[in-house]
Amino acid sequence: MGETRVDLHHLLEDLRDAYPNALEETILTEVVANSLDSGATCLRLKTEPALSTLTIIDDGSGMRRRDLVRYHDLAASTKTRGHGIGFAGVGIKLGLLVCEDVVTETRRGKEHVASLWHLAGRHKAPWKWIPPLGLVTDHGTAVQLKLHNALSPLLDEGYLEGTLRRQYQPLFQPEFDEVLSQYYPKGFRFEVNGRVLARHHARGAEVSRIAVCLARKRRPTAIGYLTRHETQVSDDQRGMAISTFGKVIKRGWDWLGLTPAAPDRMAGMIEAPALAAALTLNKGDFVRVGSRGALYLGYRKAIQEAVSQQLAHWGDIRESADKANRRAVRPMERDLETVLVELVDEFPLLASLVERRAGGQKRLPIGQTDSAEDGQALLALSVMTQAEAPAETIPPAEKLEGPAEIQAPVEEVNDEPLPQQEPSPGVAVVPAAKGRSRPGHYGLSLRFESLEGDPDLGRLVESTVVINDSHPAYRRAVASRSEGYHIALTVSLALARLAVPAAEEHEFVTAFLTHWGEALDRTPRRSRKRR
Questions:
Q1: Using CB atoms within 10 A of its CB, is residue 191 exposed (0-12), middle (13-18) or buried (19+)?
Q2: Cβ atoms within 10 A of the Cβ of 123, count?
Q3: Are 350 and 362 a contacting pair, CB within 8 Å?
Q4: Is 211 helix (H, G, I), strand (E, B) or coil?
């Protein structure tokens, strides 16, 4: 009889690498996420540098004895997708990589138990029952990390506070109470070494509130703000951030596909609880395919519109070359679509950008389901107008009280469908059904940005190739009237990182340019129709 063996150390390292942040930050963030999921109202952190221990205590629902047994299984979880932001207690499990041992104490009802856990080699992580240390008095869960490194940042009070404020920013800002109060009705507070971390309103020279509504609904399902500052914003706050249940998932401008004229002086935050259903397995990003991908892309489009409106109001929209020369770029995009369709058989990873369908149509691979009816309902919302996108792809709106600045003046607010209206300033609408269908552009698109000092000709962001129009090579191409070849080369280099390993990028670029050149002979010339 054989036995399946698992290299636990290697598996934990792979799990660690799935997160974009440092290991210590991931551990702290995930422990907080699981406390929030348990219904806690307070999280207390206590550091003891002399003993190299960090103790984290919450007042959540706690675990029963059988739950604590299962808690020690590496991939065990009682969570349901879309109903929380934690993942299988992964924070404590990753803690095994940096700890001598981990003590977990939990209390629920009359059950009060504790365990001691550690990593003993590459294949073993034994644990045992121990008497409770008295860390939990009424109900909740406590974990005590005995760290290998006495200089670990997890023992630094300033590091703990900075990480909590950065990763759970909406919980520190009263602007989001009207949305988050549904999930945390008693509020939530953080304590570090007995000190309650203060909450502050959004600050800036100018602060504008933003709301996102489901179509034909008056109550916003996502709210936030955009701030403009007179001086540069710190790197960890710069850009637009998006969170769900108070946990920040992404930050910056790349994910949103917008770049203000002064991006280093802009900051903002959007809280969208409904997007918890679109989180990836590690809760570190959003899914971009299927029904959950359609949900994310629909909200992303609505947030783009709301932010664009405010930037236009402030006169802070960058007049990029792709807007000024859109008519010249669109034929180039059509050529690139043709090239991608021809290359997808040889380089299958390009299928994430463009896909062949019956009749020669092309679209992003979003909304592929076993049901043909569902498949029609889950087209890419990010490229549709408000009249095109199906409402059933979006979960029902939660009953949220909208910001006073944007709340429609009505006698009684409810969630009943209302006639479609023009959105107010600062309010964007997630697309809904009904209305005349209009052709949408699916596939690769081009955008120009001035990225001073960036050595790359361009980069791939979502399904857009951003071309650096401040690069010396681009300026030379403009001067010699060879922009088309420069764009094709830039696109091929940007896609090569997606399509093939680094050692095969040269072959990919050669194949791409070959197909691009041959596309000229196959492009039919359009003749004008005589009236």
A1: middle
A2: 12
A3: no
A4: strand
Could you report the per-residue pLDDT of 429-465, keeping only the tens digit for each?
A: 555 444 444 444 446 778 787 777 788 898 887 677 8
Domains located in the chain, CATH noted = 8-160 (3.30.565.10), 445-522 (no CATH)
* Alpha helices per DSSP H over 448-529: 472-479, 483-499, 505-522
53 membership: H or E segment, kind and range: strand 53-58
Model confidence band, residue 337 (pLDDT cutoffs 50, 70, 90):
confident
Q: Which residues pair with 224 in a beta bridge?
A: 210, 270
Count other C-beta atoms under 10 Å from residue 523's C-beta. Answer: 11
CA angle 192, 245, 92 (to 5 degrees): 55
- The pLDDT, as a whole number, for residue 85 is 63
37, 38, 40, 43 alpha-carbon torsion, rounded to 10°: -80
Are 306 and 272 in contact by the 8 Å Cβ rule? The answer is: no
Q: Is 359 left (phi over 0), alpha (psi -120 to 50) or beta?
A: left
Written as one string, the DSSP assignment of 110-172 is TEEEEEEE---SSS---EEEE---S--SSSEEEEEEEES-TT-GGG-HHHHHHHHHHHTGGGG
CA distance 362 to 364: 7
Classified as helix, coil or strand, 269 is strand
As a whole number of angstroms, the distance between CA 93 and CA 73 comes to 9
pTM of the full structure = 0.69
Strand partners, 433: none
Give the angle 8-99-139 at the CA atoms, nearest 5°.
100
Quote the tokens at residue 396: 């029902």
DSSP result, 359-399: GG-EE-S-S--S-HHHHHHT--GGGS-TTTS-GGGSPPPP-
Q: What gap in Å lies between CA 22 and CA 94, rounded to an integer?
A: 11
Environment class of 213 (CB within 10 Å of its CB; exposed 0-12, middle 13-18, buried 19+): buried
443: left (phi over 0), alpha (psi -120 to 50) or beta: left
Establish how many alpha carbons lie within 13 A of residue 421's alpha carbon, considering only the half-sphere containing its beta carbon.
Answer: 12
Strand-pair partners of 247: 244
3-state secondary structure of 342: helix
Summarised one tens digit per residue, pLDDT across range 215-236 is 667 788 899 999 999 999 988 8
**What phi and psi values does residue 215 have, to the nearest 5 degrees?**
-55, 140
Whole-number Å distance between alpha carbons of 406 and 309: 14
CA distance 28 to 166: 12
The distance in angstroms from the start CA to the end CA of the chain is 83
Helix (H, G, I), strand (E, B) or coil at 210: strand
Hey, is 268 helix, strand or coil?
strand
Please name the helix (run of DSSP H) or strand (run of DSSP E) that holds residue 11, with its range, or none.
Answer: helix 8-17
| 3-state helix, strand and coil shares in percent for the chain, rounded to the nearest 5 | 35, 20, 45
Token code pair at residue 402: 């909208």
